[in-house]
Amino acid sequence: MSGAEKTGKTYLTKLFLKQQYKQYIPTLGYDIVNVTKNIDLIYREQQIQLSLWDMQGSEQYDSIIQAYYANAQAVILVFNCNDRKSFDKCNTYMNHIKTFCIDYVQVSLVGNSFSDEINREVSYDEAVDFASLHDTIYVEITSQNSSYATIDNIISKLINMIIK
User: Fold this and answer.
1) Which domain holds residue 133?
2) How many Cβ atoms from other residues are within 10 Å of residue 155's Cβ?
3) Backbone angles phi, psi at 56, to 5 degrees
4) Interhelix angle for 9-16 vs 148-163, to 10°?
């Protein structure tokens, strides 16, 4: 998981692990969780070992990001639909991904909405255009209504894209 601060990366990680997320506490540096997961692949169900990296969104960690991206096969890039700056920073994160990740890295852009449409600063169409420009998939979620199935579906799609 990558993206700016306060975009919901830790929340999505906890959701995938079926752990309770009590309150916002900034991630310091990074948090790595290894999990074995049964994933429905195109042809069959298979057990996959995943290493989920929840990376701090603060710019003070930009200089060490390349080490975290080195062998990543997939990246979930998260931004807050109600925070224009977090979306604008996606360009920087995409540059990091293209520079430091392996050539065939798969990326999913996730727009996380924390409130109603009135406070929205990034339109759905704008996010879709950005994803298309960078040859990624776009998924929009709402923190309050997201379920395990939502993040599981995103991760399953990425794994299927890697295996192709």
Assistant:
1) 2-163
2) 20
3) -55, 135
4) 90
